[in-house]
Amino acid sequence: MTKRIRSKIARGSADLAILSLLEEQPLYGFEIARQISERTGGALKFTLASLYPLLYEMEKRGWVQARWQANAAGRDRRYYRLTATGRRQLAPLRQEWRSFFQALDDLSGVSHA
Amino acid sequence: MPDWKKLVQRRMTAPKLGDGLKEEVTAELAAHMEEIYEEARAKGLRPKAAMRVALQEVESWSDLSRDIGITRSTEDAMTHRTKTLWLPLIAILFVIGLALVLLDRAPALQQLIWTACMALLFCTAASEAANLNERTQRLWLPGFASMTAASLFFFGASMVSDPSRFTTELGLRPQSLRLESGPGLTFYISWVTAHILFGAVGAYMSRRAGGTRTARVLAGMFPVLAMFLICGIVIPISAFARHNLFVERHPMTLVFGMMIWAGIPGIALLAGAAPFLKEEQAAEAIAP
Predict the structure, then answer these.
(1) Is the pTM of this model over 0.80?
(2) Which ipTM was obtained for this model?
């Protein structure tokens, strides 16, 4: 699955993608976008314009916390860290998406395609 | 290397964001674009092509500005900790303090709770300064600074002037202080005099944040608003609810109390704020 998915599903899966990534380690915006793109083989891709409103929304909801710190290159970057509230969001989100794909699979055998 | 900050600054038009927040968003977006540019350059693209790649990240700057304006709106940008810990804690303390005032119990604790509420509110607001909207920076934060200073002074001076009376009599009941007595009068005069400084603190902070003259006056007058609330609302309700015969027969006591505890300190606050109101008058005079 290397084609870029440009759909509402991809948009809707953004929360899960970002939270899952931040569950592993705190990252800053560019790194989040880069890792999501790399790890999904380019299927999910965030532009600056699509990423930051999402991150800020998550921050507003208390799912992530951000703070400025230097990256490996010594440049100040705003790192996002998953909060306990964000962590609690992950389980139901995962379950929701599992059910969604299961339903699609049952309907059309997508996973065997 | 393009100046990404300037580039983002020019394109971002998020009116809802305060200056501090806008600067932070600009810095973050500029850093992101810079990395995209550098990545493209590292892949061998020429500067112009790399710049195009970076710019392609945003199809519509006005849409992005709007989205960010909504999501990072300073009107609701409090951190999670503030929302889930500090504000509920302050609210609980406030309710306990109010209940004690109405029940006329534990005077020293009333003082302590009130002072703690003020200090917590101010610290919370100060810690959220970067996220605060302009009105909060220009009015509420300076106002709470002024009120916190006044509360701390009242608390400290009460303890110093007469610790034994403080624990038994002096709650948030201003009329219980006997002004005819030497220590009481000394305490009152020093308390009123200190209000000049508190008024100045509020007005100065408001002016520094770019507050209008009205905002500066209000920020400087904040402590008196609390006293007005206590003398004009809490004490009368408490007195009539408890059928305080003296107050019922002499309602003018309340007016007198209000004058002593809100009117005169109010004048002192205004006097303190006055020097910080002048600049705007001058600006207005210059403005066409």
Answers:
(1) no
(2) 0.84
